[in-house]
Amino acid sequence: MTSITAAVLTISDKGSTGQRVDEGGPAICELLSGIGAEILFTEIIPDEKEQIKARLIAMTQKVDLVITTGGTGLSPRDVTPDATLEVIDKEIPGIGETMRAEGLRATRRSMLSRAVAGTRGSSLIVNLPGSVKAVRENLAVILDVLPHAIEKIKGGTSDCGR
Ligand SMILES: Nc1ncnc2c1ncn2[C@@H]1O[C@H](COP(=O)(O)OP(=O)(O)OP(=O)(O)O)[C@@H](O)[C@H]1O
Ligand SMILES: Nc1nc2c(c(=O)[nH]1)N[C@H]1C(S)=C(S)[C@@H](COP(=O)(O)O)O[C@H]1N2
Predict the structure, then answer these.
(1) How confident is the model at residue 161 (pLDDT cuts 50, 70, 90)?
(2) Confidence class of residue 152 from pLDDT cuts 50, 70 and 90?
(3) Structure confidence at residue 162 (pLDDT)
(4) From the CA of 134, which ligand is nearest?
(5) Which of 14, 33, 153, 158 could cross-link to 20 by cystine, CB 3.0-4.6 Å?
(6) Domains plus CATH for the chain?
(7) DSSP codes joined into one string, 89-111
(8) ipTM tops the 0.90 cut
(9) CB 119 less than 6 A from any atom of ligand 2
(10) CB of 15 closer than 6 A to ligand 1?
(11) Burial code of 66-100, b = ≥16 C-beta within 10 A, e = fewer?
């Protein structure tokens, strides 16, 4: 499997104005590095839909995998999944479903994340919730499948048989 290039996009009003230290972004970088991914970009932006869309479009032109953290919930400023759905070609419902289902073991509020995942061109976008606890719990349950998903998106013939 060729190594994966990745970008991490933290979507947080407080994080983007320096009101809170971003712990989610670094946690994602740590976990992705653990599977050999090369992190080319990290950025923190506010919960602004058009800005999120523009960054997702730009980042997917440069890396195999874009992971977002934050803004997947129900508050008025949480618009990450809505922005993601407007820029992806194909949604991959199973990723969000798996994260929510597995997340219930940790917290019943897992069901409140509207996180989505999908393809854009030959790249993969995955939303994660904002808290660093949620980042670690959600990423842990999908991390092993990400390389296979990226290989398939790129037209790879890796065996789906296992
Ligand atoms: N990047 C982050 N690093 C560490 N903790 C975070 C981060 N983003 C969110 N959290 C924590 O997770 C909780 C829920 O995340 P959410 O994205 O809803 O953030 P918020 O505080 O509601 O608004 P915002 O982060 O956009 O200012 C937050 O209250 C915060 O405690
Ligand atoms: N595994 C896991 N999933 C989780 C959580 C968590 O702590 N662990 N937090 C939930 C909560 S409290 C919310 S509000 C939603 C959305 O979080 P966000 O608004 O930070 O994106 O994620 C949910 N998913």
Answers:
(1) confident
(2) very high
(3) 62
(4) 2
(5) 14
(6) 5-152 (3.40.980.10)
(7) SEE-HHHHHHHHHHHTTT-GGGG
(8) no
(9) no
(10) yes
(11) bbbbbbbbeeeebbbbebbeebbeeebeebbebbb
